[in-house]
Amino acid sequence: MFMMRLKRTPTECRITWIGGRYPRINHAEWSTSEASKLNAVVSEDMKVKKPIDWAKVAETLATSRTSIDYMKHGLPPHRHSWTPEADQKLIKAVNICRIDNWQLVTRNVSEYANPTGILKEALNTNLGFFYSTVPKDAGCTQVFPFSQ
Predict the structure, then answer these.
(1) In the chain, domain spans
(2) The pTM is what?
(3) 43-66 pLDDT per residue, tens
């Protein structure tokens, strides 16, 4: 009989237990009320430009969640914003990586750019200008791999 032996450190086991198995930790979906209370506490700290003490937030709200859980849900997600510098990075990334590797292109543009979201749409739309001289029936699959 084949038996796989996984070696876990006590710290790894403790993290897994507290993060996902410990019955006293609230692992339920976030309610609207709970999210609103969290946003109010975080907004107050951000107004005064004070670092957020997530352990204190967990203690204040007392909903049996971990401080990491509050941090994940309390911080706004980062979004990529287009600037002239980002445009230049995009042109450089496409010249280096080509447009058949969106993951690599986006990594060179911004850590917050999403290769399946707005960046892909922008590339497919705007690169048409650069490649408009290539006829659709030329069989060039490298020009627009997603849109044609």
Answers:
(1) 31-76, 84-138
(2) 0.50
(3) 888 888 888 898 999 999 999 988
